Amino acid sequence: MGQERRASRAGVVGCLAILYLVWGSTYLGMRVAMETAPPFLTGGTRFFLAGAVLYVWASARGIDRPTARQWGNAAFAGVLMLLVGNGCVAWAMAAEKVPSGLAALTVATTPAWMVLLDWAWGGPRPRALVGVGIAAGLAGVAVLAGAGAGGVSVAGAAVLTLASVSWAVGSLFARHADLPRSPARTTGMEMLAGGAALAALGAAAGEHAGFDPAGVSLASALAFGYLLAAAVVAMSAFTWLMTVADPGLVGTYAFVNPVVAVVLGAALADEELTARTGAAAALVVLGVALIVWPRPPAK
């Protein structure tokens, strides 16, 4: 029994490390991939291929085929989270030149929007400590929003906030919608739909016409491969953790990821670290920690 517990503990620690490091590094990966490849086409292809892998894997395990209604629900959630959510992040980083670390800090406020929207739709009223966390996280975004040195443009902050809200709406919808019981099947369906929509947006924006695969640098190609693997591996780790570990422990990735993104951006991409960035990071991380940290058990 002791040996089994050690193995389980090692598995939890290993999967948490994957969530912390892999998901935290995807922002830098997106920046490198988009240096010589169009943002929407890159993201759409990445999610479509990752979704296909997860869907085929679920099919190989003999999981029941989804219904038409389940496909519609998965497509709606996938469009909200990937087309709008990830698409806005890609646009802000490509068009507004938002550094990867600052993009991660802004998107880290997603749990705040989930709590507020869930409350608005009849969910439980947030605890006082959660309210403090929401205020701190949004204050951190306000600190980042400015055209001065070390900040994010107002347009960039607005679009990244839209990404967070859209991801929160999609997540809340998926929580209550009729979807397959298999998380892998559901995630694969959402990625297939969202990836296809994101690629279609790229085509509508003319990305296909001006894209020359021969012009993609080796660094961008390697970053794309890394992002593709990350989408499959990290989501699988997250799905497994949600079945064996406390949700509060799993939720700690939400305030570790932006720290990892800021550190990697500064170390590997020469992204500037300023007093404004430090203050915003402290507010966002504190806010998200207060939101996702598990509440004490009732006596």
Number of domains: 1
How do the helices and strands follow one another from N- to C-terminus? HHHHHHHHHHHH
Give the termini separation: 30 Å
Net shape: globular
pLDDT < 50 stretches: 1-7
DSSP helix fraction: over 70%
Structural class: mainly alpha
Q: Can you count the helices?
A: 12
**Strand element count:** 0
The fraction of residues assigned to DSSP E strands is under 5%
- Oligomeric category: single chain
The biggest beta sheet, please? none
Mean pLDDT: 87
Radius of gyration: 19 Å
Question: What does this 3D model show about the protein?
Answer:
The protein has helices at 2-33, 39-60, 68-95, 100-107, 110-120, 128-144, 154-176, 183-204, 218-244, 247-250, 253-268, 275-292. The chain has 299 residues and is mainly α. It has one domain (2-292). The protein starts with a helix and ends in a 7-residue tail after the last helix. The model is unreliable at 1-7 (pLDDT under 50).
Give short descriptive properties of this protein.
single chain; 299 residues; 12 helices
Describe the protein's topology.
Blueprint: H1 2-33, H2 39-60, H3 68-95, H4 100-107, H5 110-120, H6 128-144, H7 154-176, H8 183-204, H9 218-244, H10 247-250, H11 253-268, H12 275-292
Helix pairs in contact: 1-4, 1-9, 1-11, 2-3, 2-8, 2-9, 3-7, 3-8, 4-11, 5-6, 5-7, 6-12, 11-12
Can I get a quick summary?
By secondary structure, the chain is an all-alpha fold. It has twelve helices and no strands.
